[in-house]
């Protein structure tokens, strides 16, 4: 079963708007990561947040983590058409070895 | 530096045929992962290696699937015999021990079994 469930499944916004995606997970984690996948391509790592961190920024990306609620959110500010992609959260489980468990993904479409 | 390289990029085969997918990880990376992505099941980890040794193959769906890593720069995923339900995109990813779980993905192989 999927460790991460993402919400919404699909999101359509206008260029310049902010996009927020959420990820919920089930068990204790060491860290949570977000990846982007453009159509027909492999996944690309965006940002990693550790279990003892609450917020992290990277350029136009902001990630929050609430371990009490077992949830994370990814905010993309001032979106661009080039941000159109699928976004996945991935969790490194406590005691899970070196594996990542990927969520179901959010399909983001940014329209001009 | 070159990223993770996978070949072929596309493979179309008939049911019952043997399929071999290939992966070259990033030089210096000591972990290699094989994933399968479908619309129904999302991205699933099949198997991963550390220093060429298989560590966890619990995601390999059945005996028809096998993976090898004969050296640090090459891995194969073989399906024999292939079935239509094996149709998916297969990704290889690699990482280094010193980079806190971040994985680097190849472009994938789109497999279609007719």
Structural class of chain B: mainly beta
Main sheet of chain B, how many strands, which sense, barrel?
7 strands, mixed
Multimerization state = heterodimer
Estimated structural class of chain A:
mainly beta
Distance between the amino and carboxyl termini of chain A: 36 Å
Helix content, binned percent of chain B:
under 10%
- Count of alpha and pi helical runs of chain B: 0
What low-confidence regions of chain A span 5 or more consecutive residues with pLDDT below 50?
none
What would you call the shape of chain A? Answer: globular
Arithmetic mean pLDDT of chain B:
94
Give the topology string of chain A: H per helix, E per strand.
Answer: EEEEEEEEEEE
Let me know the average pLDDT of chain A: 93
Number of strands of chain A: 11
**Percent range for β-strand residues of chain B:** over 45%
Biggest interface reads:
A-B, 22 and 22 residues
Strand content of chain A: over 45%
Count helical runs of chain A: 0
Tell me what you see in this structure:
The complex is a heterodimer of chains A (112) and B (114). Chain A is mainly beta and 112 residues long. Chain A contains no helices and 11 strands. In chain A, strands 2, 4, 5, 9, 10 and 11 form a 6-stranded mixed beta sheet that branches. In chain A, strands 1-3-8-7-6 form a 5-stranded antiparallel beta sheet, with no helix packed on it. In chain A, strand 4 (29-37) and strand 5 form a beta hairpin. In chain A, 35% of the residues are buried. Chain B is mainly beta. Chain B contains no helices and 11 strands. Chain B has strands at residues 5-7, 10-13, 19-24, 31-38, 42-50, 53-56, 65-71, 74-79, 88-95, 104-105, 109-113. In chain B, a hairpin with a 2-residue loop joins strand 7 (65-71) and strand 8. Chains A and B meet through strand 4, strand 5 and strand 10 of A and strand 5, strand 9 and strand 10 of B.
């Amino acid at each position: 079963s999927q460790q991460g469930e993402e919400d919404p499944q699909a999101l359509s916004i206008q260029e310049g708007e902010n996009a927020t995606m959420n990820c919920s997970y089930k068990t204790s984690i060491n860290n949570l990561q977000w990846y982007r996948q453009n159509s027909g391509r492999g996944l690309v790592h965006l940002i990693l947040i550790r279990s003892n961190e609450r917020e992290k920024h990277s350029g136009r990306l902001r990630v929050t983590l609430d371990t009490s609620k077992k949830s994370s959110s990814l905010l993309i500010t001032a979106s661009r058409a080039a941000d159109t992609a699928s976004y996945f959260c991935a969790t490194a489980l406590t005691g899970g070895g070196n594996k990542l468990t990927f969520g179901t993904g959010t399909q983001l479409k940014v329209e001009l | 530096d070159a990223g993770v390289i996978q070949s072929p990029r596309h493979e179309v085969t008939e049911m019952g045929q043997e399929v071999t997918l290939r992966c070259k990880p990033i030089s210096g990376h000591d972990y290699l992962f094989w994933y399968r992505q479908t619309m129904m099941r999302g991205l699933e980890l099949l198997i991963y290696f550390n220093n060429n040794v298989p560590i966890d193959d619990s995601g390999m769906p059945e005996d028809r699937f096998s993976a090898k890593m004969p050296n640090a720069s090459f891995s194969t995923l073989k399906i024999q015999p292939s079935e239509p339900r094996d149709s998916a995109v297969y990704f290889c990813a690699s990482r280094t021990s010193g980079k806190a779980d971040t994985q680097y993905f190849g472009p994938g192989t789109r497999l279609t079994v007719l």
